[in-house]
Design a protein that fits this description.
With 312 residues, the chain is of the alpha+beta class. The protein is built from twelve helices and 13 strands.
């Protein structure tokens, strides 16, 4: 039997299967004794140990879940999205969402949500076995009941270029219909060109107005085909742009700086640019009054000679 203080180095990790310790020569009685209340080890899941008695991190829980799920298991939902670098959905809490093969039966004791599937994703190489972004965000969306959180998560994976609206629709159609109503509604918004939660709120506000429907995230090109800007909303009939401005809804300071440059480029072409903070959308009457007045103003001058192409 190896020295007990050497086991983490031998295993290469502090989260291990009890069966692997037994294979190293550690008696089951020793494992049980060290996992007693107040002992130096702790039990994370049935047959999965943490080789210290300190605080359990989310990474520990993820690693335990993957060991518990067995070969082929992958993380999905909020845990996978966070590991993919997404930041707009809530931080993962509660059970770790895991995908396992359809013939695998696992009980997570409330700490793992092991979802059986006959469409088990093949993870990309890396430290973590992760479902791809389209699968992960829709697995999150199917179980989330907060529209703003679903909007933010779906918009972010599209905005960051991790998947397209078409790929999301294909993934949604291929999966279970359970819990699909809310993500289906959000994907309709994305299909209209909406690329952020703030834009989705703005779209809802516009439905109460008599204004023509804008093109969301249209590409504006000048006479020689040069890309001028991509405003949040474009009223093509009068050449008016609507920007929902807030550092909170951009991906960083550099993105906010590009927003200011975009506005200057449009104004140089004669575009009437209206901008609001997302917080202004809480008073839709005032926002619509502002938009209507600016739309009327824009209609009284020549429309800028810009070609608007729908978002890609």
């Amino acid at each position: 039997m190896p020295r007990l203080d050497e086991i983490p180095q031998l295993c290469g990790t502090a989260v291990v299967r009890a069966a692997d310790l037994v294979a190293l020569g550690v008696p089951r009685s020793t494992i049980s004794h060290r996992c007693r209340a107040g002992g130096p080890w702790q039990l994370l899941l049935p047959g999965i140990l943490l080789l210290h008695n300190g605080p359990v991190t989310r990474a520990d829980r993820r690693q335990a879940a993957l060991l518990h799920g067995g070969p082929g298991a992958v993380l999905t939902g909020a845990d996978a999205l966070e590991l993919h670098g997404m930041e707009r959905m809530p931080r993962p809490s509660g059970p770790v969402h895991l995908l396992v093969a359809a013939d695998v039966r696992r009980a997570g004791s409330g700490r793992v949500l092991a979802e059986r599937t006959d469409r088990l994703p093949v993870p990309a190489p890396g430290r973590w076995a992760l479902a791809h972004e389209a699968r992960a965000v829709l697995d999150f969306a199917r179980r989330c009941r907060v529209r703003a959180e679903v909007r933010a998560a779906v918009a972010e994976v599209v905005q960051r270029g991790r998947c397209t609206p078409a790929e999301l629709n294909t993934e949604l159609a291929a999966g279970s219909g359970r819990g699909s109503a809310l993500p289906r509604e959000v994907l309709r918004e994305v299909g209209d060109g909406v690329r952020s939660a703030a834009e989705a709120q703005a779209r809802a506000v516009l439905r109460r107005s008599g204004l023509p429907a804008p093109i969301w995230n249209a590409e504006l090109h000048d006479r020689v085909g040069r890309l001028v800007a991509v405003p949040d909303a474009w009223f093509d009939d009068v050449g008016m742009a609507w920007e929902i401005d807030s550092l909170e809804w951009h991906l960083g300071p550099a993105d906010y700086a590009r927003t200011l440059d975009r506005r200057a480029a449009m104004m140089a072409e004669g575009v009437v640019v209206v901008h609001h903070l997302p917080s202004a959308l809480r008073d839709p009457v005032a926002v619509l009054r502002d938009l209507t007045a600016n739309h009327a103003h824009a209609s009284r001058r020549p429309r800028p000679p810009l070609l608007a192409l729908p978002p890609r």
